[in-house]
Specification:
Low-confidence stretches of chain B: none
Distance between the termini of chain A: 37 Å
Strand content of chain B: over 45%
Helix content of chain A: under 10%
Helix content of chain B: under 10%
Oligomer: heterodimer
Structural class of chain B: mainly beta
Mean pLDDT of chain B: 92
Radius of gyration of chain A: 13 Å
Number of helices of chain A: 0
Shape of chain B: globular
Order of helices and strands of chain B: EEEEEEEEEEE
Number of helices of chain B: 0
Number of strands of chain B: 11
Largest interface: A-B, 30 and 25 residues
Radius of gyration of chain B: 13 Å
Shape of chain A: globular
Chain lengths: 116, 114
């Protein structure tokens, strides 16, 4: 079974540019999450999709961030325009519908974003 | 006060000894608690989940939960060099069971000394 894959693994962009991160969840996983870890801080929740619907986007920092999951498969997270404070590691995770230990979160390796 | 607090370490433990990792949380109504292991540059990997007070054992790992003290710990018995990693404590805030919206601690870096 292929795990959660994220692309790119690294991205270096200049302030003001646009970057799009992609996440391919494990096949059949309806739950998809985006998390972010800023340097020296804890991993923080950004948003949660159930299939193609946004279940919870309370963690999105501001309207420069746009997440989509058209068709309920892969998801993209666009940052436009990027700011210096957006630098960090963006993790995607997926799980089957359900809760608790029956549907553990599977994380991708993350995309390391550096805004200069 | 942080929602989930962990000692950042580094914590050094001799090979074969017991490693003890601790975590406290602030939301008293939380019901779901998780320990993730993360190797450098890799994805966090779930190693234990616990929902009830007491101990839960899985192989060399034991998770302990004390909701009255808002405290969750992870014990690793017979520590191996391959256990060297950062261990993340995560809590699902609120009353619901599950892992839909986790709050993480900053992690404890564990080093097992051969």
């Amino acid at each position: 079974e292929a795990g959660v894959t994220q692309f790119p693994s690294h991205s270096v962009i200049e302030k003001g540019q646009t970057v799009t991160l992609r996440c391919d969840p494990i096949s059949g996983h309806d739950n998809l999450y985006w998390y972010r870890r800023v340097m020296g801080k804890e991993i923080k929740f950004l948003l949660h999709f159930v299939k193609e619907s946004k279940q919870d986007e309370s963690g999105m920092p501001n309207n420069r961030f746009l997440a989509e999951r058209t068709g309920g498969t892969y998801s993209t997270l666009k940052v436009q325009p990027a700011e210096l404070e957006d630098s960090g590691v963006y993790f995607c995770a997926s799980s089957q519908l359900g809760s608790g230990s029956n549907s553990p979160l599977h994380f991708g390796n993350g995309t390391r974003l550096t805004v200069t | 006060q942080k929602e989930v607090e962990q000692n950042s370490g580094p914590l050094s433990v001799p090979e074969g000894a017991i490693a003890s990792l601790n975590c406290t949380y602030s939301d008293r109504v939380s019901q779901s608690f998780f320990w993730y292991r993360q190797y450098s540059g890799k994805s966090p990997e779930l190693i234990m989940s616990i929902y009830s007070n007491g101990d839960k054992e899985d192989g060399r790992f034991t998770a302990q939960l004390n909701k009255a003290s808002q405290y969750v710990s992870l014990l690793i018995r017979d520590s191996q060099p391959s256990d060297s990693a950062t261990y993340l404590c995560a809590v699902n805030p609120g009353k619901d069971f599950g892992n839909e919206k986790l709050t993480f601690g900053t992690g404890t870096r564990l080093t097992i000394i051969p």
